[in-house]
Write a structure and sequence with these properties.
The chain is an all-alpha fold and 443 residues long. It contains 18 helices and no strands.
């Protein structure tokens, strides 16, 4: 959720702003899109311009709703931007599996988990992303383009250093502290890109089609995570490549982490250049649809909301809900690798989960979209806690399975069913939280 604050001109006080995900004025349809959703600025003074924008917003309400086909290019662009966002997440998720194969301690693994914090804390700097921008270049592009350029250059530079950090060049142990700092910055940039893309989705799509933004987010980020995690681990594994993709065995996989980073760094640079040159923002509709205020006022509003009793209770619920099963979730995969399960096989078990991750939110939304979404949360929580116990039993059972020539098929079926049940319960909890958050934003 990215807060929206005012344009740099604070002399004209507007109605107190809200966060960009919760603001959606009834401004009707956006102008024809394609790869250009901009309007010519043909007004004179500031007062005339604001009056014209409001008149356009009112007049737009009488226009016919736009179909998703009319904005297909914008929907595809949003989808691709979310795919790019999932790549750093997937790569960061693959590092613990690589570290586990190098016998890194669980203390170091826990320290590395700090790299995922930027996505949880991005609300702290989101007001800056909304407030500081170059108007002629575009409110969202002012942050999206530089951030993705830095991400691309960062990945290309990291491709020259990652083997040394992992201890692949000189046979030393991985430098966990340097890896943590590096990937923390990596995820910080990805979280900043997420703020810009989420905000842009509100003005890139018309009111009738803005709901597709959440679909692009869910599906695109899942696809990006799949590419950066599952696909990378499979292609990086010499055993997997020799067994399924090669006729002659080789001592290494088809790609290395260095190769993967270099490739996606180049993709980031090329695609960001295309977005910067070819896609323009609709500045006028952005002004109509996004209510804004100053940075200090936005932070005051944020803290005022947090101090509300209901919000404090909700925050307490979110902060403590995962304590009962977080340890089992974090350690199970690492313990299975420790017991001899190939990391690429565990990664491939996530492939059947991809369509499940796409279908489940659509099915579960029918049950979480009611007036009391937390009822689903309360009912699913006991089963989610029991699943943590089932994970513990799975770890206990793994070394007892005969696996001289590899683990039998029935073992992988049990693991796959455990993953599927985990995905179902996680989506129930997440869907309930998301629905409650949406209801609060509407309120």
């Amino acid at each position: 959720m990215s807060p929206t604050i005012s344009h740099k001109d604070n002399s004209r006080q507007r109605r107190p702003g809200t966060f960009s995900h919760s603001v959606e004025m009834k401004s009707g349809s956006l102008p024809p899109d394609g790869w250009d959703d901009s309007h010519p600025d043909s007004v004179g003074g500031e007062g005339d311009r604001e009056a014209l924008l409001l008149d356009s917003a009112i007049a737009g309400a009488s226009k016919a709703p736009r179909s998703c086909r009319a904005e297909l290019s914008s929907i595809l662009l949003l989808f691709f931007l979310y795919v790019l966002q999932g790549i750093p997440l997937g790569l960061a998720g693959s590092i613990p599996l690589i570290l586990q194969s190098k016998n890194v301690s669980y203390t170091d693994q826990a320290f590395f988990s700090f790299v995922f914090w930027p996505f949880s804390l991005k609300l702290l700097w989101a007001p800056l992303v909304d407030a500081v921008y170059f108007r002629n270049f575009g409110r969202r592009k002012s942050w999206l383009v530089p951030t993705q350029y830095i991400l691309g250059l960062f990945m290309i530079y990291l491709s020259t250093q990652v083997d040394r950090l992992l201890g692949n060049t000189d046979g030393t142990t991985p430098d966990v502290i340097a890896l943590t700092v590096t990937f923390f910055l990596f995820e910080f940039l990805a979280a900043t890109q997420d703020i810009a893309v989420d905000g842009w989705a509100l003005t890139m799509l018309s009111r009738e089609n803005v709901g597709y933004a959440s679909t692009c987010n869910s599906v695109g980020q899942t696809a990006g995570y799949f590419l950066g995690n599952v696909l990378f681990l499979a292609l990086e594994s010499a055993d997997f490549c020799n067994k399924y993709l090669r006729f002659q065995p080789q001592p290494r996989g088809i790609v290395t982490l260095s190769d993967f980073l270099l490739f996606w760094g180049t993709v980031f640079l090329i695609t960001t250049t295309l977005v910067a040159l070819l896609k323009k923002e609709n500045k006028e509709v952005s002004l109509v649809k996004e209510e804004t205020q100053g940075i200090a006022d936005t932070y005051k509003l944020l803290f005022a909301i947090i101090r509300m009793p209901a919000v404090l209770t909700f925050c307490l619920l979110i902060l403590t809900a995962k304590i009962g099963f977080s340890a089992a979730d974090a350690v199970t995969g690492l313990k299975l690798i420790e017991e001899g399960v190939p990391k690429e096989h565990l990664a491939l078990l996530a492939v059947p989960m991809v369509p499940l991750q796409i279908i489940l939110p659509l099915v579960i939304s029918k049950y979480t979209a009611g007036p009391q979404p937390l009822n689903i949360f309360y009912k699913a929580m006991p089963y989610r806690l029991l699943l943590g116990l089932e994970y513990a039993l799975l770890v206990w059972w793994t070394p007892k399975v005969e696996h001289e020539g590899g683990f039998p098929m029935y073992y992988y079926i049990v693991v796959l069913l455990s993953y599927a049940l985990h995905q179902l319960l996680s989506q129930l909890l997440y869907g309930a939280m998301l629905t409650l958050r949406a209801a609060e934003r509407q309120f």
